[in-house]
């Protein structure tokens, strides 16, 4: 995550994205463990990105943030160490 020069308080948006991603990663790891889920990386990263933007949208409404207050740059990657593969968004 990195701030966006056209955003207001871009460090806030980047930090918020980081905290949301950490929350989602914890949830995903619990689900993986409980279900022995075998989704491929592309499906997983799409699900994580979708959940991230849903959570961000909810916070945007709850905190009554302006659009320029949640601008941030994000590069999202998931790595499968067993298969030596990765997906990037």
What brief labels describe this structure?
two-stranded antiparallel ribbon, two-stranded antiparallel sheet, 13% strand, 89 residues, alpha+beta
Explain what you see.
- It is a single chain.
- The protein is an alpha+beta fold.
- It contains two helices and four strands.
- The chain has helices spanning 10-35, 41-62; strands at residues 2-3, 72-73, 77-80, 85-88.
- The strands form two sheets. Strands 1-2 form a two-stranded antiparallel ribbon.
- A hairpin with a 4-residue loop joins strand 3 and strand 4.
- Helix 1 packs across helix 2 (41-62).
- The chain starts with a strand and ends with a strand.
Mean pLDDT, all residues: 85
What topology, given as strand order, has the largest sheet? Answer: 1-2
**Total beta strands:** 4
**Main sheet?**
2 strands, antiparallel
Give the ordered list of helices and strands.
Answer: EHHEEE
Shape: elongated
Class by alpha and beta content:
alpha+beta
What is the end-to-end distance? 12 Å
> Which spans have pLDDT < 50 for at least 5 consecutive residues?
none
> What share of the residues lie within helices?
40-55%
The Rg value, from CA coordinates, equals: 15 Å
What fraction strand?
5-15%
- Give the number of helices: 2
């Amino acid at each position: 995550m990195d701030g966006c020069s056209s955003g207001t308080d871009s460090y806030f948006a980047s930090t918020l994205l980081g905290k949301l991603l950490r929350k989602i990663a914890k949830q995903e790891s619990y689900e993986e463990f409980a279900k022995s889920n075998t989704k491929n990386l592309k499906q997983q990263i799409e699900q994580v990105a979708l959940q991230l933007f849903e959570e961000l949208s909810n916070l945007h409404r709850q905190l009554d943030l302006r659009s320029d207050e949640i601008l941030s740059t994000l590069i999202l990657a998931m790595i499968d160490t067993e298969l030596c593969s990765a997906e990037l968004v």
